[in-house]
Amino acid sequence: MTLNKLEREVLTDSMLKIQSVQASLNEIDTTKVIDLDEVRSCLRTASKTFRAALRSGPSIKKHIKR
């Protein structure tokens, strides 16, 4: 199924937020937060899923006037 422009934007925005959270969690000691490794795994899975969805449909290219 092809994603529309809004759906692509929402997924892209969500991926960027996930990346931000992943980077923030790198600063936390895993022994101090219960199931932090599981949280990181979930975030990786979500990111992979969103990337796959964005790759599955045709990309929307911006036209640049030269």
CA-based shape? elongated
Write down the secondary-structure element order: HH
**Structural class per helix/strand content?**
mainly alpha
Mean pLDDT across every amino acid position = 88
Tally the beta strands: 0
Rounded to an integer, what's the Rg over CA atoms? Answer: 16 Å
Q: What proportion of the residues form beta strands (DSSP E)?
A: under 5%
Largest sheet features: none
Number of helices: 2
Binned, the helix content reads 55-70%
Low-confidence stretches: none
For the termini, the CA-CA separation is 33 Å
Question: What descriptors fit this protein?
Answer:
66 residues, 2 helices, 64% helix
Task: Write a structural description.
- With 66 residues, the protein is mainly alpha-helical.
- 64% of the residues lie in helices and 0% in strands.
- It has helices at 5-25, 36-56.
- Helix 1 packs antiparallel against helix 2.
- 0% of the residues are buried.
- The model has no long low-confidence stretch (mean pLDDT 88).
What is this structure's SSE topology?
Elements: H1 5-25, H2 36-56
Helix pairs in contact: 1-2
Summarize the structure.
The protein has 66 residues and is mainly α.
